[in-house]
Structure prediction request, 301 residues.
Amino acid sequence: MTDTQNAPIDKPFGFSPELRAKALVEAIPYIQKFSGKVILVKMGGSALIDEGLFSKFAQDIVLLASVGIQPVVVHGGGPQIGQYLKQIGKESTFIDGLRVTDAETLDAVREVLIQQVGKKIVEKIIAYGGSATALTGETESLLTVKPKGERFGFVGEVSKVNPDIISRLHGQGEVPVISTIGQDADGQAYNINADTAAGALAGALLAEKTIYLSDVPGLLIDKDDPTSIISSIQYKQLYEMFETGVISDGMIPKVESCIHALKKGAKAAHLLDGRVSHVLLLELFTDSGIGTMINKGGEDV
Prediction:
């Protein structure tokens, strides 16, 4: 018998074998329910800063793929882009939570999203035994865009999604990891807000779950009070929250993309705290769930 076999097996995990078995049993119906379904996860660049949490995120994605779920990762890179621009002496300007993007900023966004963030996510998933492929919205015209407006510069709104490459990668057992650079009909590249891109993709893929990871617990009535979290809400109730200013700043594109995803065919959208260890598993495979769920409320959208 080895030293490992002699060791108390409950100590490394902090809870008993019985509780671990109960957690696995609790997950069974959810695994069966989501098997073969698309779960789209949008992660912000802040989720990569804590290496421990980033590793747990990658483990969660590998587990989802291993049990027959079809994860799609759409990533941002706000903190990394901001740092890169600061290093080259360029200030960032935001309008309604969107980064104004001139030609120099667009080059920086491309460099950071593709060469730094996207590459790192793919490498981490592979390190934990998964298979992943990096791509952008330009790949096989995955995301065709139109300009958001002159005051935003090279910021694009998604006008068309071609999900064929996503379906093909899933068929090959790959996890698509998408950097949100799109192009217009003339081939001009545009920066797409990652939340906006996630909503468009989730709708086109008829995602079972559209999950947004950020650095807040969910949708809050008072953004300064984490206990004011809304656990569940119908999407039509959100419009009043825009008008009253409850939803503001960077939460605007996030919530707008949730609504877009639901209107275009996604089943449910979730705002989760990416700072929580294994938050994807807690949301998908436990009875209690976590964060805020936005749903259709049984109404025709």
Remarks:
- The chain has one domain: 36-295.
- Residues 103-127 form the longest helix (25 residues).
- Residues 1-13 have pLDDT under 50 and may be disordered.
- The CA atoms of residues 5 and 258 lie 48 Å apart.
